[in-house]
Queue: 2 jobs
Job 1
Amino acid sequence: MKRMIMMLLVSAAMSAPAVAASVTNKDADTQVLVIVEDGSRAEVALEPGATETICPSGCFLTLPNGDRIALNGAEDVEIKGGGASVK
């Protein structure tokens, strides 16, 4: 019985949707984003029209124009004209 309950809990946890922010590049040029998450810094090159899923537990996102955005992991960010709109 314990094994059955444990299997149900594990399968429920695996089927729960992951929450993460997504960034879409609506510009005609590749945009390089700087992401700082849990003290780790990474640069991500986002091709025109591409969407990247980032920051499942929150992060800071620095845009090519220098703007810095704090994300909690549930936003949709669109990059257009070098700037961003958060939805």
Note: Helices lie at 2-15.
Job 2
Amino acid sequence: MLCQECQQNPANVHITKITNGQKTEMHLCEVCAQKKEELDFSFEPQFSLQNLFGSLLHDGLLGTREKISTSKLQCPNCGLTFAQFSQIGRLGCSECFTAFGDKLHLLLRRIHGSSSHTGKIPGRTGGEVKFKRELASLKEQLQEEVERENFERAAVLRDQIREMERKLGGGGPVG
């Protein structure tokens, strides 16, 4: 198929445009496609994870004292510093997760509300898994309440945990 513009070069750029339900197709060569003003291939998204991570770290997720201490953190495997990570918003290797662990947990918790990925659980067989996750979540909440010295709430959570552990250990219905 030849280019619809110049009728000389083979068409290797195929564009389908749908406007108000009307479908329009264009088959162009690379040269003609680059000349078309309505086709901008240098798309830079306004939103990116790198920008998000970098701005969260730079704009106050970490206090001044923490910024000073984290600026010296460095991955032993790839050499990326935490300061570089906060600039580009991308880790260098899998070892960076270990090297920057606590700071990443803080960041992920701020963004997602949790620092662990739970994934999907099959409906038929997932009752016990959901139950154990809920139990782990309650234990984490209990720890946080004790650290905050909110002992009334901690006592309620402790009782809920004991009841759930009793159900889990006793072989009763889970979930």
Note: The first strand starts at residue 13 and ends at 19.
